[in-house]
Design goal:
With 405 residues, the protein is α/β, with parallel strands linked by helices. It folds into two domains: 23-50 and 304-401, Aspartate Aminotransferase, domain 1; 57-302, Aspartate Aminotransferase, domain 2, CATH 3.40.640.10. The protein contains 15 helices and 14 strands. The protein has a seven-stranded mixed β-sheet, sandwiched between helices. A four-stranded antiparallel β-sheet has the order 10-11-14-13, with helices on one face. A three-stranded mixed β-sheet has the order 1-2-12. A hairpin with a 6-residue loop joins strand 10 and strand 11. The protein starts with a helix and ends with a helix. The relative contact order is 0.16.
Length: 405
């Protein structure tokens, strides 16, 4: 044990030198457009609370009703005695929202992604010997990467294509055209969390059909966020209802608590209920989360102004931050990477902005490539124009003081 602690301590020292995870600043109250930090108010520009539902009164009331009517927890996994009728109702609601046949709930999207890859590729499905292949975008989320790591190397080839480069993907598919693969899977994020850019799902749908591949999309940063009605990247790209497998989270725009799902063909979902280990051996989502997430979907389907406000706020912030002289990665998503280059600049600016009442986090190596340090601003429908203008004033002041603009 002493040797283990020595090795861990050495590694920890190296990790701390990056300073990536040293600045956990606790909120003294709920997640919202404006939060309380160190006894002071700050405009929140670091949250996945895209449509402002994390502290929405309707969602809060629904969560309270969930406890009153169904209790705090289920104390069981789904197949034993942990399934309540509300779980099936939420799964049907997600399917309706996404335009899919069926949905299965998980404790997180991480668990959902692990389940999909491990359950599908590690089972013989009638084949004594076989080989599958996964083509994965270079900037896919860590949960997709870890899900693929669970695939047995003797039965699954893993290949990486250049970020958002459909031509590079097609090149690899062409090279493997005559290979005797049982399953071909194309895996991508819908929205890439470090860049804020959208996958070319319109093109990927065509490519998947042409090469007989399964198109897997993790749309965690898109559902409730992009598309005219917030139905995700597929809606934004004109292919709503045409994605083979959609995974996502209830922990971002959809109330911001916890939970994830796989949504797709009914046969695939039925198979996952029998084979997905992170579903079979994990407790069911508790009633407060199920009720809250259900209320969040209902709000999105009934009130079109929520998504419209998010899009309006995003467009305004993107335009004004560029006017101040900052360089951002172009796009339409509320993730707005403000490029600074050096890690020390991102670290210092994040700290100085907090002093000025703006909560925004810096990202640097190893989370992003060296020399591409940035502040990742995330816009929310919970923000008023006054909130955004206050944040922009702080960006102007700190940027000039630090000679960034």
């Amino acid at each position: 044990m002493a040797n283990v602690l020595e090795l861990v301590s050495k590694e920890l020292k190296q990790l701390e030198e990056t300073k990536m995870f040293k600045y956990e600043v606790p909120l003294q109250g709920p997640q919202d457009g404006v939060v309380r930090v160190n006894g002071k108010k700050a405009v929140m520009l670091a949250s996945n609370n895209y449509v402002g539902l994390s502290n929405h009164p309707v969602v809060r009331k629904a969560a309270i009703d969930g406890i009153k009517k169904y209790g705090y927890g289920v104390a069981s996994v789904r197949f034993i005695c942990g399934t309540q009728d509300i779980h099936f109702k939420l799964e049907k609601k997600i399917s309706k929202f996404l335009g899919t046949e069926d949905t299965i709930l998980f404790s997180s999207c991480w668990a959902a992604n692990e389940a999909f890859f491990a359950s599908l590729t590690n089972e013989k499905l009638g084949f004594e010997t076989y080989k599958d292949v996964i083509y994965s975008d270079r900037l896919n989320h860590a949960s997709i990467i870890d899900g693929q790591r669970l695939c047995k190397p003797e039965t699954t080839d893993r290949k990486i294509y250049k970020h958002n480069d459909v031509d590079d993907l097609v090149r690899q598919l062409e090279e493997d055209k005559n290979a005797d693969y049982r399953l071909r899977i194309i895996a991508t994020d819908g929205v890439f969390s470090m860049e804020g850019d959208l996958a070319h799902l319109d093109k990927l749908v065509e490519v998947a059909r042409q090469y007989g591949a399964i198109l897997f999309v993790d749309d965690s940063h898109a559902v409730g966020v992009v598309g005219k009605t917030g139905r995700g990247t597929a809606e934004a790209k004109g292919v709503h209802g045409q994605i083979d497998v959609l995974t996502g989270t209830l922990g971002k725009a959809i109330g911001g608590a916890a939970g994830g799902y796989i949504s797709g063909k009914k046969e695939l979902i039925a198979y996952m209920r029998q084979k997905a280990r992170t579903y079979i051996f994990s407790n069911s989502l508790p009633a407060p989360i199920v009720f809250g997430a259900t209320a969040a979907f209902d709000l999105l389907m009934k009130d079109k102004t929520i998504v419209k406000k998010l899009h309006k706020n995003t467009a305004y912030f993107r335009k004004e931050i560029v006017k101040l002289g900052y360089t951002i990665l172009e796009g339409e998503h509320p993730i707005v990477p403000i490029m600074l280059g050096e890690a020390s600049v991102a670290q210092d600016m994040s700290r100085e902005l907090l002093k000025e009442g703006v909560y925004v986090k810096g990202l640097w190596f190893p989370v992003v490539p060296r020399g591409e340090a940035r502040l990742r601003a995330q816009i929310s429908a919970a923000l008023t124009k006054k909130n955004i203008d206050s944040a922009l004033d702080a960006f102007e002041k700190v940027g000039k003081e630090m000679k960034v603009i």
